[in-house]
Amino acid sequence: MSTPASPSDRLATKIMIGLGVGAAVGLLGRGAIGAIPSLENQALWIAGEVLEPFGQIFLRLLFFAVVPLVFGSLALGITQLGRLDRMGPLATRTFALFALNMAVGVALGLLFMNLIRPGASIDESTRTRMIADQGAALSQLHTTAAASRGFSFAMAVDMFLPRNLLGAVTSFQILPLIVFALLVGAVGTQLPPSRRLAWQQALETINELMTRLVQWALRLAPFAVAALFASAILRYGPSLLGALLLFALGVAAIIALHLFGTMSLLLRLFTRRPVGSFFRAIRVILVTAFSTSSSNATLPTALHVTREHLGVSPGTAGFVLPVGATLNMSGTALYEGCVVLFVAQVYGIELALGQQATLLLLSVLSAVAVAGIPGGSLPLIMGLLTTFGVPAEGIALVLGIDRLLDMARTALNVGADVVTACIVDDSLRPPSASTSERPQ
């Protein structure tokens, strides 16, 4: 007897159907324009005045959630750590490896995007039309991006600590918001226990409210994807499909490289565990993560396998894996950086090396704030796009394939958690302890 599909699976199926319907409508419309050129004005009117505004309802709902979601998630994550001055070797090594995993993932993704440049594969005439359609808004974003190319210590202070935090937030500058959330979270750990608990509960309420708002928005996603994709193809032709396919295949390849390449290297450098045996032992974890697209849903399987088959101590596994399911988002951070650079390439916006370094940092920090639901990264990516002078509406290009890549990046997220648990556990064991003594 087959297992009923979960709500997230049904949503993913509907979004994929929406992508197919939108592509079909757009291609049929382009075919009709080719056969009857006089239809072009009517088709473009439908794309710009009907399909695009409908899709914008979905995008604007996501925009509503960006600021409170980033602040609430990051502040809560830091507050939950408790006393910062009491973080022992277990926590310190765990968080250091989490940061390393995410930073390497983003760096690999950005390297790929710079080498392959899938967004640049769109023909110049299509790009020109896209830029023209954005009009004054895109011109203002170009100005923002150009102004941030230079770098100095004074500029860094303004970037991280602007004089007017509210002004920076209202213009969707995510970096000052992240810094503010981290500072508030750190200060929150110093509150008396009763008040810290009350503050933590308030942040949890904010997160739950914003998560529910995103879930409401996602109900529109299948229809919005169809409308936005049909509008894009009607306006710009099918060349977008080729660029999107190249992007999706490339991101999947980089996720696989990070999971099986970087993680294997970390195991060889910091443990004595045979890499082949390790990946055979965690196959069930990776399959569960890929099929559910949820780190939390995979957690019971990950805990069992890590303790019973990899021999990680219950204390280490019980700390690293639950915390990793919330904070260690290697695949998500990688994906965020790739999307920002891809959309920037589509619109002909070049991000300088310094900007990409900032993008790496922000991708790592913002990935921690991603809600654990399908599509939870979308509001954060929109904020990052605006931060780097890229039209946030460009996220519509990847909406249809987001869930498929979500399955892959969840497998990477969970795999990185297990690797971290093994490395931390081995580092805390006495030198006489041998991996040969552990269950295989």
Give an overview of the whole structure.
- There is one protein chain.
- This protein is mainly α.
- The chain has one domain (7-437): Proton glutamate symport protein, CATH 1.10.3860.
- The protein is built from 18 helices and no strands.
- The chain has helices at 7-35, 40-79, 89-116, 124-147, 153-160, 165-170, 174-188, 193-219, 221-236, 239-270, 275-281, 283-292, 295-308, 314-327, 330-346, 353-367, 378-387, 402-428.
- Helix 15 (330-346) packs across helix 16 (353-367).
How do the helices and strands line up, and which of them pair or pack?
Elements (H helix, E strand, L loop, with lengths): L6 H29 L4 H40 L9 H28 L7 H24 L5 H8 L4 H6 L3 H15 L4 H27 L1 H16 L2 H32 L4 H7 L1 H10 L2 H14 L5 H14 L2 H17 L6 H15 L10 H10 L14 H27 L12
